[in-house]
Design goal:
Distance between the termini: 41 Å
Radius of gyration: 19 Å
Number of helices: 11
Number of strands: 10
Oligomer: single chain
Number of domains: 3
């Protein structure tokens, strides 16, 4: 018999009626933070609240379960972690987002220059986004989206939860799965367990003028943790070089000089990291 699941909702100072709607429901434990602590900190907060749970299931606010999760529990019991299939509103698997391999330096450079978006079928991107895999076939995967991820509590405790230096969002789930793999655990993909994912809910709450900076900052924090010095410096350089055309494109799209300030900050950030191999402070 599968263990019962107790929903715990962590609200990071939402500006809508989320808190009131959750409080109106029975059987849900709510933690309403006065400020936005970031995705990793909020998840860690929820995990501490569920200190008696044998399994932890991470669900983004824009994810809705469509099937029971018994298959994830069984897979987590044997392998440590498990992920189900995320589908869009059309019922199709969200290929390219739900499942990915761990990013290589080449994959991140192509991301920075927009090559993966312009030419999604390139060999590097096909491998990175598992476009060479049938989304209906079960088996081990490297990095499923943290939007729909289960793990045993002992795995969570051993790894110390999510790294809160990835603030407010991005790459915290990639880092967690990377550390899990390094510790000898396996993420099992169970496509018979399905959840619908609207996409972009949490990111949409971030100020648009800061999103690129947050993404680049988290990317560099991931790279310094998991890449060799030469590859890390190459990514720093790629962030700097790619910032210029991205800034120009942003100015054209917004018909404004506003992107100049943000990309100037990105240039400063990457240049500072380029001359230092120290891990950024949390």
């Amino acid at each position: 018999m599968a263990p019962s699941l107790v929903p715990i909702v962590i609200d990071n100072a939402s500006s809508d009626d989320t808190v009131e709607r959750v409080r109106a429901r029975t059987g849900v434990r709510l933690i309403a933070n006065p400020g936005n602590r970031g995705f990793a900190a909020a998840v860690n907060q929820g995990a501490r609240e569920a200190d008696q749970a044998e399994f932890l299931l991470l669900l983004n606010p824009d994810v809705c379960l469509a099937t029971p999760v018994d298959g994830l529990i069984e897979a987590s019991r044997h392998h440590g972690l498990a992920a189900g299939k995320l589908v869009g509103e059309d019922g199709r698997a969200q290929r390219g987002f739900a499942l990915r391999r761990f990013p290589t330096a080449a994959a991140l450079v192509l991301e920075l220059f927009g090559i993966n978006r312009l030419w999604p079928g390139n060999p590097v991107n096909r491998r990175y986004r598992y476009l060479d895999r049938d989304p209906n076939q079960p088996g081990p995967v490297e990095q499923p989206a943290g939007a729909f991820l289960m793990m045993r509590r002992d795995v969570w405790v051993r790894l110390g939860g999510l790294d809160e230096q990835f603030h407010p969002v991005w790459f915290e789930d990639v880092d967690f799965c990377r550390r899990a793999a390094d510790a000898g655990y396996r993420v099992e993909y169970v496509p018979s367990v399905i959840a619908r994912h609207a996409g972009g809910h949490s990111v949409g709450q971030l100020p648009p003028e800061y999103r690129a900076m947050y993404w680049c900052d988290s990317l560099l924090k991931y790279a310094v943790k998991h890449f060799r010095p030469l590859a890390y410096r190459g990514i720093c350089a790629a962030v700097m070089v790619s910032a210029v055309p991205r800034m120009v494109l942003g100015m054209i799209q917004e018909r404004s000089l506003a992107p100049v300030a943000m990309y100037f900050k990105i240039l400063k950030l990457a240049s500072r990291r380029l001359v230092s191999l120290q891990r950024p402070a949390a």
